[in-house]
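Reply to dn_fold:

You asked what the input looked like. This is it:
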Amino acid sequence: MSALLATEATPTTAGQEVPAKQSTDQGKPVGDAKPADSKDTKSKSDGPPEAYEFKTPKGLPDDYAPDDKVLASFTEKARELGLSQEKAQQMLDYMLPTMHGRESEQQVQRAAKWADEARNDKEIGGKNLDASLADSQRALKAFGTPELQKLLDGPMGNHPEVIRVLAKIGKTVKPDGFVSGNSGNQSFDPNDDAGNARRLYPNG
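and this is what came back:
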């Protein structure tokens, strides 16, 4: 699902699912596991090795990284069960994609729920949705960062309260690059966070 505030997103395309980016570099070591060609460990075919050398299962996105605690817990249980390197890897190959699939499904459901709430919101939704998104994008252009945009490309970009706050900020930013405040139109400096905050929230 494309977030309402995703980069280049428009109301007519919002709500469409975007397939997860698939990995083109499978088989890389995951977690703190040592690479498969490490010379200081030796795998045992009939029992757990001195140190497991796990690889990323196929079919996961390039940027996927398993939770360190989950991987540590799995490693501990695999050793407790006496699983060999091969059997432990087989279990991981099944477990991680299953967990990732469930996490992705939950994110899609959460994003869809927030998007529906935003579209139906009395203040920012309905006939006001396009204007609210335009105001939000203007606020992001004036004050946003690549890191913030990356966050809003995900489910958070559909959250009605995020859109509401950004839309209110965007209303103070005019197309000519000025921010309106109680003391009249004043130009803003993207590097002057304190000054911009005083103009946006004069009573804060």
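The chain has two domains: 1-125, 126-200.
Hope that clears it up.
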